[in-house]
Every structure is written in C-alpha cells, then in structure tokens.
Amino acid sequence: AYFRSLVAASSDAVLMLDGDLRVTWSSPTLGATLGGPAAVPVGADLLELVHPEDALHVARVLGVDQLEEVG
Q1: In a 3-state reduction of DSSP, which class is residue 38?
Q2: Contact at 8 Å (CB) between 28 and 7?
Q3: Average pLDDT of each block of 10 consecutive residues along the chain (71 residues)?
Q4: pTM for the whole structure
Q5: Nearest CA among 69, 29, 27 for reference residue 45
Q6: How many Cα atoms occupy the beta-carbon half-sphere of 16 within 13 Å?
Q7: What SS3 class is residue 32?
Q8: If residue 55 lies in a helix (H) or strand (E), which one and from where to where?
C-alpha cells in the first residue's frame, strides 16, 4: 500500500505489470499524459501497447524469452 501511495502521488508515469506483462495498475499521471484514465486499462498486454517496431526490444529488456508474435 505504501508503494502505491508513493507512486500515485508522483509526477512520474508508472505502470505495474504481472509476470505476463499485463498491466495491473497505472499511475494517474500516465492516464493524464495519454489522454485519460482508460488510456492504459488494467489487464492490457504491455506488448500490444508499445509500437510494433519496439515490442521485441521491450520484451527482451523485460526478460521475456519466447514470443509467439509481437505487434
């Protein structure tokens, strides 16, 4: 609860992800930056949110070893 309170009050855009790279929480700042609270819905697949040309790089940086199809 402390961590969420801390990042919720931050001016930084923050996403929390589960092991499958699905959004479990996003900061209010991220919603405001992208156009509203529904801009990054809980349950969204991170790799579907990034530009297709960047998805493989993002997956590798986050330690995803196998991808069926990205983008």
Answers
A1: helix
A2: no
A3: 73 85 85 74 89 91 68 46
A4: 0.69
A5: 69
A6: 11
A7: helix
A8: helix 52-61
